[in-house]
Amino acid sequence: MASPSGVSEEFAAALRASAEETEKRNRLTPVSIDALRRTGAFALRTPRPSGADATPLEVAERLTALGRSCPSAAWVAGTCATTKSLFAKNFGEDAPEEAFSNPDALACGSGVPSGTATRVGDNVHINGRWANISGCEDADWASVAVMADGIYSWAFLPLDRLRIEQTWEMAGMRGTGSHTAVADDVVLPARWVVSGQAPARADQLASGLTVLAPVVGATLGALDVIGNMFASDRTPFMSNYSRMADSDGARHWLAEADRLTHRAERTMLAVATAISGDTAVGDAAATRAAADLADAARDCRAAVDLMLDLHGASGFRTTNALQRLWRDVSVGSRHPLLNPYLAVERLGVMTTTTNHRTDHSKAP
């Protein structure tokens, strides 16, 4: 039976069972990819009528549910959603039919213009290196930013045209396989490259949701681990309690971890709801919302730290899912789109500019 998030227990269990192997492989397992595809996770932002074209709220809910079982799997699905969103926005009706002929195709990409496009006759030659491309080893196609005659542009590349360098060696989110994609004089039809624009603040906000949701999901997954521990007969070491649940302090710690986790989730969903409407998000609203997302990411880290205190040193056993979720939250919550000090800085600049302008017309 499918949950309200659209992820059935069957597929959630498949992702959980594959999570450890996913991390060891530095990429998703075939079982995980199949589960994501069958849940429609790769079609979330495929334009209608063939795809789901889900709202930011629906994307956030789905990625959170997936992240509860496997944060890396949710992250790759989120990258796919972001890639398809930006691709559709920039290519519009000129999008190559190869991109959306299969609504469940896995897409990956980068908005960093670390490549060039040179027109030669009816073709374009692409050269460049794009780091941190999540899911690139398993993707069907990529959309990457390039500079074409000094103009910021986007290119569509089938993955078999790119070379992958194994550069993703991180403590967390290891299963995302966020390696480096390289184009060595790749020749494309000219129609596969279009002039475009760098992601606007509203685009960045939507992308921020796709990186925060797997983190929130991972935190909920950690809460599941701790909840199971409390339901067991585990005895707190060096205490007279017969069960963890008998300790007032432990119950308080658990309540605080639960509060922080669900505050992060509510914050994320509130932002997702706000940008799911038809009204364009202004810069001021986007700045405030970005700060909210950064706060939610910090709530996730704080919640997991409390859970590790509750679990004790055994939570760091390599066989314990809690330590993997902790590392995934620690790395994922520090994505540039969730940068807390820059979010506060931008909020401060905006607030100062808006509320404390000097009226020089009244100066003597």
TrEMBL record:
Gene Ontology molecular-function annotations: acyl-CoA dehydrogenase activity; flavin adenine dinucleotide binding; oxidoreductase activity, acting on paired donors, with incorporation or reduction of molecular oxygen, reduced flavin or flavoprotein as one donor, and incorporation of one atom of oxygen
Residue ranges constituting the Acyl-CoA dehydrogenase C-terminal domain according to the UniProt record: 211-339
GO BP terms, alphabetized: fatty acid beta-oxidation using acyl-CoA dehydrogenase
Cellular component GO terms held in the UniProt record: cytoplasm
Transmembrane segment boundaries: none
Lineage: superkingdom: Bacteria
Sorted UniProt keywords: Oxidoreductase
Protein name (database record): Alkylation response protein AidB-like acyl-CoA dehydrogenase
